Amino acid sequence: MAEEATGKTIKQLKTERTSAKAAFTKQANYLLRVTGDLMKSELQTEYRKLCTLSREVNSANDQYELGLLAEVDEGEKEVKLQPNEESDLSKTTEDCRNRLEEVRTSVQSSLWSRYAEGELTFAIEEAESACEQARGIPVSLINKDAYEHKVETGKQLVAEAVAALKEWEGWIPNEEKTELDGRLKGLRKLKNNLVAKKAEFLIVQRTAEEERRDSSQAKSAPQPAQQTILKIKPTSLPRFHGSRREFYQ
Predict the structure, then answer these.
(1) What burial class does residue 103 get, using C-beta atoms within 10 Å of its C-beta: 0-12 exposed, 13-18 middle, 19+ buried?
(2) Where are the domains of the chain?
(3) Could you read off the pLDDT of 99-134 as tens digits, one per residue?
(4) Distance CA 173, CA 91 (A)
(5) For labelling, which of 5, 31, 60, 201 has a CA lying 20 to 30 Å from the CA of 217?
(6) Which pTM value belongs to this model?
């Protein structure tokens, strides 16, 4: 019997299912009516409520089915519901799924056009611009600090773009997802290339340091002592001018 299997009568189970369906329908109608008016957080919150109500509908439907199966004559070889009962159960499940998809499409369209598209486009373009600026910096010692600053900025913006894509992942239309994934993949590759390019600046820096060190060593090396050259003036001999008295004896 149903009461033994579920703790409730068939009537109670059917009433609970009806109540769950009514609450779900009411929330779905509300969302379809105010989708374009609610703010981002409000819209997402109300949609989560609808998802919760849809699960309650399916749960109540499953309990009702369990109760119906429990009511089948135990003497029958195969426990099987009546065609109208099976049709009713299937219709409840299908109607709930279709209505949830209808509301989701409406909510997705609103969130994408009003929030997600702009936020994602801005985040990706900012990251692309920063990375392109870094890539255009020539490799030289004087540009090393500026390059490292641009690379760090680019890495941060790429991380923000990735976070934004993850935040909106469930709300991106299928026709937009491929392009966005491709641009993000290109950003990651560009970022990795910029990080790898740091090695070129390090080589330039190391070369400059070695040249300065060699120059400093050359200046500080001891110079050979200069030998003093003594110039000896030749001795002048006395000259004879015709007078022996004046000539040195």
Answers:
(1) buried
(2) 1-81, 115-216
(3) 999 999 999 999 999 999 999 999 999 999 999 999
(4) 28
(5) 201
(6) 0.73
